[in-house]
Amino acid sequence: MSGTPHDSAAVGQRGIDTQALARYLRTQIDGFTGPLQAQRFPGGQSNPTFLITAGDRRYVLRSKPQGTLLESAHAVDREFRILRALQDTAIPVARVHCLCTDLSVIGTMFYVMDHVPGRVFWQPSLPELSGGERAAVYEHMNSVLARLHMLDPQVLGLADFGKQGNYFSRQIARWTRQYRQSQTETIEAMDQLIEWLPQHIPEGDETTLVHGDYRIDNLIFHPNEPRIVAVLDWELSTLGHPLADLSYQLMAWELPSQELRGLAGCDLAALGIPHGPAYVEAYCRRVGRPPINPAHWDFYQAYNLFRVAAIRQGILRRALNGNAASAHALQAGSRARDMAERGWRSAQAQQSAA
Predict the structure, then answer these.
(1) Class of the CATH domain delimited by 9-114
(2) Which residue from 118, 145, 156, 325 could staple onto 85, CB 3.0 to 4.6 Å apart?
(3) pTM given for the model
């Protein structure tokens, strides 16, 4: 992971006992020596993430948040499992060391992996790069996603990592439950999406490994080259429909560049970034699938925006409960309504085109 962690004083306020952690890690990681320092990474709204420094080695710790949590959320044990399964595949991931389910160590479940040096890009427009570098970054993002979807879960020991088939219907039901459990106000657009989405799932079913949150700021790039050296944040990974993953990433092309870190309104040709249809075409070519029915894209966008709205509603609830992973959680969570309204507009666009 990359980025600048918060001051280590914040870690103590979160209740991490660095001495207890050091004692535990000495039993789990060969060559682990102290003293141990822990610093919180900025960004992220779900699982608190820390840079662990011990001697001349650096690691990353991902933990569940403290306090009362929604059922099935913050599954760091699932993250650990898929990262371990992907260690020797074509998908670049950090090497994992241990999963701790003993709550007496730091008060919550966590796992530890290697720290991967590199660059994290927060803006999909990539203002810090040249046009040629931008094109190469998007080419490699596309390639890694395609490679993930072509892996065989059974060969990796992940045949039971999720259910087979009916991915969209199950996900809509899941995020509806999560949204209802964390709801703080009535959002009419969410109620409309909850009713509309199950009735408009496109025909055809597929099952592959899916990341669930594949976007540019969940990737670490080589310090000097436009290639991914680690894919991060596997919390939402499962067995699912590959077009859910692809269309989720495609949301970046639809969202405004200012308040929501999207690409809408950007001069993509001048930037060297492919337009959405070209990106989709490259993906289809890589995985060997026919062109995707354009009539289905409004559903995929509506579904993804609905899911993001439900996630942001959960962030808002955790912020109000005082156990959010980020100081910016209240602001992020307040965007649930905007995401839902954007999703309902996508649904209405499909209805108008029908």
Answers:
(1) alpha beta
(2) 156
(3) 0.88
